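== Sequence entry ==
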Amino acid sequence: MSEQQKNRISVDIYGQTYTMVGTESTTHMRLVASTVDDTMREIKQANPSLDSAKLAVLTALNAVNDRLKLKEQLELLEEELKKLKD
């Protein structure tokens, strides 16, 4: 079994440089980093007193919340599709 080639890029998120490594395309990884950066900046604008650690945790909480909602929607759609096929 061959291992997928990993891409390595440097990205800037909220003024810090991070190295991302993954099998996704560099375009996808840059989009992920950009989305995290945008979300952190939006949260900071609404809550100027937050420090970076709390800002990062709130960003993660928002991302996981969005993921869980999408997962739930997908499961409902899959159930509907299964009913239509039956």
Observations:
- Residues 7-85 form one domain.
- The first helix runs from residue 26 to 46.
- The chain has a mean pLDDT of 95.
- Helices lie at 26-46, 52-85.
